[in-house]
Amino acid sequence: MDENKEAVLESIAFVGETLGPFFLQDPVKGDAGAAFEALAALDADAAAGEWPFVDTDEAQRDLGLMKEGLAKGTMDDDLVWEYRRLFIGPAAKPAPPWGSVYTDRECVVFGESTLALRAWMREQGIQRLDDDKTPEDHIGLLLVLMAWIARNRPEVLDDFLRLHVLTWSSHFLEQLAAAAEQPFYQGLAQLAKASLEGIQSALALEVSYPRYYR
Question: What is this structure's pTM?
Fold first, then answer.
């Protein structure tokens, strides 16, 4: 593998490993406390110039929003309750983080696209990275899995992104950014969207977009 390809794969892994936990982990109860603290201490302007696949001005804006949202620390009630409002419930989520909610006619969790992803993973011999009951097409799980595939199974990365991530990620992340009422999650949604679209462009992936039912 040439050095440029290795660098692209490492950058893709960085994006997935950095952003994925923020979609999966409660700021207080989760295991991503160190990641939240690192983001809070980040020099957003300097980091924006290093962020891969995204225009510097956009990265600066999005990282700035994320840092702004952490200004009061991870114990801030607004931050904690916003995570739970967006990703946990019990109230209806304004932008559910599972792909099948948008691509399945019935707008259900564990829909056809989830089963298709599960079958693809089985065919590739890829096991889940955790043992919880969250559907495989949760955006956070997909970002973390993207990082793992980039490092361990790069030959299947294009198909993973083209068939199971990029088909719905921009649609969802746009809705999430609009629904977010706390700057951290607004910035996170925008940065994830821009990063995935930048990866699509860098890999020259042609994606067949489904009909969205939500």
Answer: 0.96
CATH number of the 3-90+138-158+166-202 domain: 1.10.3480.10
The residue ranges of every structural domain in the chain are: 3-90+138-158+166-202
Query: Once rounded to an integer, what is the mean pLDDT over residues 106-119?
Result: 94
The predicted-structure confidence for 53-102, as pLDDT tens digits, reads as follows 999 999 999 999 999 999 999 889 999 999 999 999 889 999 999 999 99
Please state, in angstroms and rounded to a whole number, the distance separating the CA atoms of residues 176 and 93: 10
The token pair that represents 187 in the structure block: 């910035």
